């Protein structure tokens, strides 16, 4: 079967105009401009226009996004390199104004009741001109920059090479005055074409002013936002069904039972089954467990491998054929009592094939499948079937009210609520996800029903389309800058928990962040982006840090199924997940390459890779063979383009990838992620990455970095692994650095390093380990201590002091009172004074003390910290025998951990103290005699973890605890 062409001008459909001339020569355009156009949005419009599978308004909005990115990126370029454009300033300024006018026209078009097809087609054609003008401006800047870097001899050698076509990377025209003339000509030509284009489009009414659409302004630290800060517990909607299913899974029936759970997409079946899977009683009953999420077009091989990797650690599975894999899984499971959960399977054929690998050992094993497909749900061997039916109207309204207003309830009248109930039922069809999405969308509007009614009118109009789905409706409602951010989440596998730290820095490096009008830095902006996506219920936080801030997130699974194909179709990224023989070549040039299988099997032809901007690898092979093929691929990428166009190189988790020595030729690289790669060294050319923003070598074996790192003037996040920095007298630390994590400082270099670090005044996160001898002179670290005191923006601080043997030693630091923004503080080492001397700021939320050897009870001081949420007193942090918590102390404390306080005997908690405590963990406090009743009777105390505590102590606590408090006992 022939694959249909995605080139709209290759179609015989008379609806398409003749092929614009700019596409004929598009392969000749200098691809560096993609940094400024990016997002794959050019292809978004062209592909959707060709296939006609999406609405006219979606295509128009895609073009508006492109123009918005062009304006933003070119504005930054003009500001940063203003001297380069001195001779063409007037022409470029005029074009920038015209780009703004184009954006205004498109914004007006968004709010017309019906989009004029003439306008849409005209916009699509004119997009190529916008694309090429950005290309011309960027090429002009790149040529100038390249010439300035060349010496006289080298420059003329390249000129000769270019004349004889020996060096394709050198611009065709080396004469600077000729470049100026050409750019001026292009600017004037664009202005003329723009006027002609504008004159040929229909007159549009002004855009309606939508002041009700209030995007959440990120004016305070996101940790204080309800989106993350409040502890949430999702109510079980299908409580009876879940209870029945739990009883079925944990019953004592011996034969293998295959259980089918059926329900529409978004009904909540997979989430509820996962909740059961993670229950402690289920974990205790089934030591052999696997939960696999099935992806579109998965074969039985994918499914078998997915199960095997969770139940068995055998290496080399990828080399085995399907029959052997099925035999391996069957043989392994036969000797175990197992629970296998297969989520989101839609193919009855796939179920029948995998059935042969699931033996009945007559030991109570269970297999649970969830599916929205009624045919798959009717699988003959599934003797137990559960159907999750749509939520009724009253239930749907109750869920909606809770999602929007929480416990405070609706502010609307009963009459309005009755109408709202009907609207919800009509739009959401009783599915939990659709109700959540509608609630998230309406939460961005003012609580005025007239404003909400306008949304419902749009819904009414949209539902007339046979292809309507509220998923797409909510996506269309996203602000322009959030659309690429949301789609970008789909490049991570469905169900994959994305580290928020990683996601934020990737968004920044990809250029998705628009400038802030409130003066917020980019890191604040991306936090606001995630917050809005969470508030809209399109992204979920899957794991939180101890202070309730988000640690991991993911796109809602059902949305992943919908939007992954769209993101791939529009060219936002290309997934390499099959071998060369099986994988279809990309239909459009690849902007972002996401690797799920060995990159050596990838098609490396120039046509597909000359525009490559991002390479993100999830090649999770076993940690036995270094990934040499990564270096070969990168070498080809760099060699093909000279400078290299990559902005993102993310190899996190790839075992020892081979990096090319000329890595520094990736001149425009913004993000280099090497966390968990276990690399030993970095290429010496690292210093050539002048525009690098993030360098992450945490969890590697790299212990030193060259002094050339200080050339990286744009570096914002430097994550090390206890590494030393080579600092010379001429070193100039990047003043805009936000994160410096994992730095190791030796005593002999401390003063010199301190003088260099003192230039970093904007740090927000600092982790520093210093080596001190027993006879250490504290003055060696005087400059570093004074520098830390000056970091007024510091939010997270970890300081450790160790001797030459790696053992904790004396930690001499100055008071922290000047660090008003400090939220997290971790201190390891002997503190030479009582705790109150250190003047810990009242805003600290997480405090960890280890080997502090405090002799005075720290609780009276710590109890006064009004924001303290998490307190960890670890090994030998306190060496006294008694600890007293004063009345009404610790007003915000939620987690308390007491570890290896070997001398502690008496722990007193007065009335009204720690009233928000929900988790208490006590480990290896062998002399502790008891816990006070005032502590055990705290209403919210849900989790009590006792590890390596005497049996008599545990028995006594079990008798005194409240019923709702769950004890976890570890040995």
TrEMBL record:
Family under the similarity heading: Belongs to the disease resistance NB-LRR family.
InterPro entries: Disease_R_plants (IPR044974), LRR_dom_sf (IPR032675), LRR_R13L4/SHOC2-like (IPR055414), NB-ARC (IPR002182), P-loop_NTPase (IPR027417), Rx_N (IPR041118), WH-like_DNA-bd_sf (IPR036388), WHD_DRP (IPR058922)
Organism taxonomic ancestry: Eukaryota, Viridiplantae, Streptophyta, Embryophyta, Tracheophyta
Record's keyword terms, sorted: ATP-binding, Coiled coil, Leucine-rich repeat, Nucleotide-binding, Plant defense, Repeat
Source domain of life: Eukaryota
Domain Disease resistance R13L4/SHOC-2-like LRR: 642-927
GO biological process per UniProt: defense response to other organism
Listed GO MF terms: ADP binding; ATP binding
Protein's recorded name: NB-ARC domain-containing protein
Coiled coil location: 71-112
Domain Disease resistance protein winged helix: 491-562
Domain Disease resistance N-terminal: 66-147
Annotated ranges, domain NB-ARC: 240-407
